[in-house]
Amino acid sequence: MLTVHHLGISQSDRIVWLCEELGIPYQLKRYDRDPQTRLAPADYRALTPFGTAPVIDDGDLVLGESGAIVEYIAQTYGNGRLILRHGAPGYADFLFWFHFANGSFMPAALIDSMLSRMDASNNGSADGVTTALRARFDRAWDLIEDRLGHVPYLAGDDFTAADIMILFPLTTMRLFSRRDIGPYPHIRAYLQRIGARPALQRAMQKAEPGLDLQRVLA
Asked: What pTM does this model have?
C-alpha cells in the first residue's frame, strides 16, 4: 500500500491532501519535529538521501520531492486527475503555477524567513541584497494576487494539483515567515474557497490534528 511519511507542519501536508482529493487508499505515518531544533527527526531524515519532506513509499519505491510525488500519485492512482494534459485549456498556466510553487515561491519564502531571523539579531539593519531578496518575495505574492483577480483557481476555472502545490507557502509557511495577507483580497477569497474543500479539511485533521486550519487560512 502507498505510505505517506508526513512530517508535522511541513510541505508533506500536500501529499495527504492529494490522496484525500483523489479518494485513494493510503497509510499515513506521522513524524513530529524535534522540540528543540524544530527539524525533522533522524528517522525521517534517513528516509531519503536528501532527508527532506515529503516522502512516500510504494512497494519498493521510495520517492521524495513534492512535485514528483504529486505527479506520481496522480498518474499511478488517480488516472491523471488534477493534472492537466498537453492541449487542455489552461495547460501552460497549470505548468507554470505547479512549478512556481516550489521553484520560486517556496525558496523566496525560506529566504525571507531566514532574513527575518538575521534582522532580529542585527537590530533590523538591512543591506541592498536583503532588500532585493525581500522584494522578490513581495513580487511573488503580487503575482499570485493578480492571477487570482482573474480566475478562481491558478490554472483557470478548475481546481488542479497546482492549487495543492501553492497552498503551503500561502498558509502554513506563514508560521515561519510572517506576512499580513490583509492587502491581498483575491488571495484571501481564494483561501476561503480552498479551505471549504472537504478533502482539505479531512487531510489537515489527519496530518495536523493540533493545528487550527482557519488560523493558517486567515
From this structure: 0.93
